[in-house]
Amino acid sequence: MRDDHNSGTGQHPVSTGPRLLLNPIACDARGLCIELLPELISADPWGYPIIRPGPVPQQLLPLARRAVAACPTLALMLAGLPR
Amino acid sequence: MANGSESEPASNKDGVLLSHAPHLVLDGIAVCASAVGATRAYLCVGHGAAPMAQFLTGAVAERHQARLDEVPVEVITTAGEYLSGQENALISALNGNAPLPTFVPPRPADRGVHRRPTLVLNVETLAHIALIARFGSHWFRTTGTPGAPGSALVTVTGAVDRPGVREIPLGTALGDVLQRSGLNQPAQAVLTGGYFGTWLPLPAALAVPVSDEGMRAAGAALGPGVLAVLPEAACGLAETARIASFLAAESAGQCGPCRNGLPALADALNWIAFGRPGPDIVGWVQHLTELVTGRGACHLPDGTAGLVRSALTVFAADLRAHATAGPCERSAGPPILPVPARGS
Questions:
Q1: Per-residue pLDDT tens for B194-244?
Q2: Contacts of A3 in chain B (CB under 8 A)
Q3: Which terminus of chain A, N or C, has less C-beta within 10 A?
Q4: What are the pLDDT digits (tens) for B136-180?
Q5: Distance, in angstroms, between B163 CA and closest chain A CA?
Q6: Quick one: which of B205, B270, B219, B277 has its CA closest to B243?
Q7: C-alpha of B259 from chain center
């Protein structure tokens, strides 16, 4: 099998800035992120989050951090934050 | 890690390569192990290939006797399911965990077997590397095209007289490959790249060069090199529905969109192929393919969605006929493409 079996979730460096990254194995569709950040996250027919692609706009960063902190399964992450 | 697990049901190239030229693959392992400074190597073969594993263990022993084994090679077998041959699943199994795809990152090259950087290559790639090490890159480039040098192993199956594995120069026209395999009846399409693959219509695709670049330009991919020929007498929607059902059953069930979306997709396709689809069903199928794409830890949902999308395009006329008059007579015929009767 070739390497294209990895979809590389969240691995598309289109533009810079912090991005929301979801571990789909850890995600259990608890839905807190969808409630806390409807600007960027919506629910699919089964309640799993669909994350709008692209970097998180500056003004939404506090809400994004809150959504990440609220995830009970630690499935939601913010990647690309300045250290 | 040499991946010869070949969980793709229609593919047989890794098996043919390993049984005909095991030492070529072992040469490739030695070359790569030396290049990356590896201290251990693994050669993975599919579940159910016990005689093959024994045969390869014998080949490894021959090298030991000849003192040609600078890096020890361990032959291992996969758990058997479709996804157990996926590289992260192989690594997970070797690390003592379930043989299932894992969340990426980390990539194997960063952290793999025993948490060490791991190079994973298909056994065919390793055989090419062994030949390049022996004869040089100039020799390698004497076949194929400038953009796609060398040769490839393809498995031709379906409506041909001489199905099986053949080695072709990269860039050979699809029509030539099929002709050499004895295309024996009018054919309507070729499934390229295996069950994660793409339907290409015939005769339009006969001129498509069989190479990564040629297939990509045609909207497909060479992938594991499967070329499955669908005769006029078969129903492409029925074939696709069976494959979609197989892929849905092989979902590891780890990711919600795949666990829920693939069975929904397979159900809708089976309804199109064998039932009486309503006017909304094609829109629903398209919506489902968009919903699952890019949302799994591995490529299974994306691959299934791509296969289904290509079927809706290539078999558009059948789709209209099924929608107005119900399933065609051809959909009741025997399957052309093998779908293993296992599932999780």
A1: 998 999 999 999 999 999 999 999 999 999 999 999 999 999 999 999 999
A2: 87, 120
A3: C
A4: 999 999 999 999 999 999 999 999 999 999 999 999 999 999 999
A5: 21
A6: B270
A7: 21
DSSP letters spanning B250-297 = H--S-SHHHHHHHHHHHHHHHHHHHS---TTHHHHHHHHHHHHTT-SS
Burial class (CB in 10 A: 0-12, 13-18, 19+), B10: buried
Which has the closest alpha carbon to B241: B125, B339, B167?
B339
CB-nearest partner of A24 from B86, B122, B255: B255
Low-confidence ranges of chain B (pLDDT < 50): 343-344
Quick check: B38 contacting A, CB < 8 Å?
A: no
Interface membership of B111 toward A (CB under 8 Å): no
The complex scores an ipTM of 0.88
- Name the closest residue on chain B to residue A46, using Cα atoms: B260
pLDDT at A8: 42
User: Which chain A residue's Cα is nearest to B301?
Assistant: A7
Q: C-alpha angle B96/B100/B105, rounded to 5°?
A: 90
Walk across the sheet containing B198-201 and list its strands: B164-169, B151-158, B226-231, B187-192, B198-201
Distance from CA of B205 to the nearest CA of A (A): 23
Give the span between the Cα atoms of B236 and B89, in whole angstroms. Answer: 31
Phi and psi at B168, nearest 5°, equal: -125, 150
pLDDT beyond 90 at A11: no
Please state the length of chain A.
83
CB < 8 Å to B254, chain A: 24-25
On chain A, the residues whose CB falls within 8 A of the CB of B88 are: 6
Whether B220 contacts B150, CB under 8 Å: no
CA atoms within 13 A on the CB side of B243: 29
The answer to whether the CB atoms of B255 and A29 lie below 8 A apart is no
Å between B329 CA and nearest CA of chain A: 34
Check CB contact of A13 with chain B, cutoff 8 Å: no
- Tokens matching residue B332: 């009741």
| Residues B59 and B22 sit within 8 Å (Cβ to Cβ) | yes
